[in-house]
Amino acid sequence: MKNKVPPEKTETKLLKIMLPEELLERVKSYCNERDMTVKEFVTDAIIDKLKLAYKERRKKPRL
User: Fold this and answer.
1) Is residue 15 part of a domain?
2) Residue 2's closest CA among 44, 36, 33?
3) How far apart are CA 43 and CA 23, in angstroms?
4) What is the mean pLDDT of residues 31-48?
5) pTM above 0.85, yes or no
6) Domain for residue 12, yes or no?
7) CA 55 to each of CA 12, 35, 43, 48, 63: distance values in angstroms, whole numbers, following the listed order
8) Alpha carbon 46 to chain centroid distance?
9) pLDDT at 17 (0 to 100)
């Protein structure tokens, strides 16, 4: 993903979530195949989802 801020320059907080084992295993497998961390995967997924949500919101007609 482009234009990432290096982790050492970003303040971070812990996010603790429970996931089904099967889903977590799929994520780990995906990450291993692509030489990325689960943290990178989850961060990218959240960013992508927020961009999509913003784009969808912008499509709605305004009064």
Assistant:
1) no
2) 44
3) 16
4) 97
5) no
6) no
7) 26, 29, 18, 11, 18
8) 3
9) 95
